[in-house]
Amino acid sequence: MIPDISSIIDLERYPLHAPNSQAYRDVVEACRASMAHDGMFNLPGLMRRSAVGQAVEQLMPSMETQSFTHARDHNIYFKDIPELPRDHPALKVCKTVNHTLCADQLIGNPVSAVYEFEPLAAFLATVQQRPPFYLMDDPLARLNVMAYRDGEALNWHFDRTDSTTTLLLQNADSGGAFEYRTNLRSDTDPNYDGVAKLLRGEDDAVQSLLLEPGTLNVFMGRNTPHRVSLVGGNRARVIAIFSYYERPGVMFSAEESIGFYGRTS
Question: How far is CA 125 from CA 51, 121, 163, 220, in A?
């Protein structure tokens, strides 16, 4: 049984349930300012520490025995770029490895309660000044929890969506920092030379961020490449990914489900 949501989400610090309050408006404005300046905003401690611990304790046995291992060689775009030769340095191939639990494996977990708390979706849409967000209908993809173990990483990539919403549940013993390079490209300038420079490790504008468990992060990654640095040690980096859409009824195709999870719903 999931306890009252206020024991999972810190509604005193983040009054998501009170959109007409001044405190709510203050949080919205602070997040908008951070988004404009940094291309992201964070809500540290959104999920209470005790609930984070409970979530991790519940999911880790399944993560060890039932998760799907996704290993992929890819370039920063996750696709071919027709105007570039295959040996262009901006198309350097890297490797991503992670282990995924799907929403149907997280039923009853506190992290599911956070995702399904509809005032959170409304708040995220308000901050981003977008139409109302809907929870994804897909029983696998709506909520995922991913683990990165010793020697594994999420490598450099651009996102294909306007924003990505994550909730950190556990840091690794070492590594696992969120690294990003703000606005490396634009909608009108792909900046392939700049991408090549980044992949060579020569871009001094790369920033690194190590979040605390319980922090919700919303990141605008369409034109800002990012990665999770190589994880080390016995303790995995564990993070939840929340999927929202501006229309109801969104589902993955069977092909997408097989590609991401090795199964369909």
Answer: 25, 6, 11, 13
H or E stretch covering 255:
helix 254-261
Residue range of the domain that includes 128: 5-261
Model pTM score: 0.93
Contacts of residue 254, defined as CB under 8 A and 6 or more positions apart, other chains included, come to 264
SS3 228: strand
Three-class SS state of 195: helix
**What H or E segment, with its residue span, contains residue 237?**
strand 237-242
Q: Which residue has the tokens 């909730």?
A: 167
Which residues lie closer than 8 Å to 35 by C-beta, 6 or more apart? 41, 127, 128, 218, 220
Helix (H, G, I), strand (E, B) or coil at 107: coil
> On the CB side of 198, how many CA atoms lie within 13 Å of its CA?
28
pLDDT for 79-128, tens place per residue?
Answer: 999 999 999 999 999 999 999 999 999 999 999 999 999 999 999 999 99
Whole-number CA gyration radius for the chain = 18
Residues 6+ apart with CB under 8 A from 160: 78, 222
CATH number of the domain at 213, please. 2.60.120.620
Contacts of 36 (CB under 8 A, 6+ apart): none
Binned at pLDDT 50, 70 and 90, residue 132 comes out as very high
